[in-house]
Amino acid sequence: MTHMEFARKLKGVFGFPITPFQSDLSVDYDGLAELSDWMAGFPFCAMVAAGGTGEMYSLSVDENVEVVRRVVKAVNGRMPVVGGVGFNLPMAVETAKRMEKAGAAALLVMPPYYTNAPMEGLMDYYAGVGAATALPISLYSRDWAVFSPESVARLAERIPNLVFWKDGQGDARKYQRIMRHVGDRLVWVGGIGDDCVPAYFAVGVQAFTSSISNLAPRLSLKLAELGLKHDFTALDKLMKKYVHPLFSLREQSRGYEVAVMKKAMEILGKPAGPVRPPLHNVKPHEAEAIRTLLEGWGEYL
């Protein structure tokens, strides 16, 4: 199977597990294995270990690699596992090589830590990661790593194993222009959050990465099913009832896209634990709001 054949098969939902921590902020590897095994029981197209929701930037290189190794073992061939890499070029290259040996089927390349990099430097960074591995890779355009249609085309031409593009900007108008300019050279994925599912599928993605997959996998899968069918009437009902109320809680503070999900998982009895700095945990009154919200989720829990 070629890299593009592999990529085109991945439709629907990428499960996006958090990384559980113990109270002392050490990685809870047993909890991670339990969570990954449970999530792999649902028909996600792939699982992303040590991604943004998995607090990849708060983990050491050794921890990131070990997270991928443990998830690969827990998933046990039921779906491909994608590993997250980033920080800077030497660390991303080392992580990429080690994750390949640990059993990752593909890599998700985060922006480098340096926020003022020129476009040519960014291209060198992504090309360097791509050259370090035989695995298919996805570039994650998030935060300050913003690209024009022309720059995406240049990256696709320069990096043969770049086969996915994960959008984290949430600008459907610009994403559609990028998709139309580059065409089927890349597989298009929605990545900023479950709350953008209608817009993503309206412009033509084939999959999205879901943090809700940690809580309610059936809800994530239903969102993808309706999105792929372009049944936006039914999709909007789910967004209004479930997704938008959750994401309004996540918007209470920066970094709550992880902290709120971890608290919700704790309420549901799933392995989670606290977040690591620089994130911070939700406040007690916010935890109660999350608990109240989940009381209406019975259909999908």
Task: Give a brief description.
By secondary structure, the chain is an alpha/beta fold. The chain has twelve helices and eight strands.
**CATH homologous superfamily title:** Aldolase class I
Quaternary state of this entry equals single chain
User: From N to C, what is the helix and strand string?
Assistant: HEHEHEHEHEHEHEHEHHHH
Report the major sheet: 8 strands, parallel, barrel
Measure the end-to-end span. Answer: 36 Å
* Helical fraction: 40-55%
Strand order of the largest sheet: 1-2-3-4-5-6-7-8
CATH architecture: Alpha-Beta Barrel
Residue runs with pLDDT of under 50 for 5 or more positions: none
Number of strands: 8
In CATH, the topology is named: TIM Barrel
Category by helix and strand content: alpha/beta
Proportion of beta-strand residues: 5-15%
Give the radius of gyration: 18 Å
Tally of contiguous helical segments: 12
Large-scale geometry: globular
Count of domains: 1
What is the CATH class?
Alpha Beta
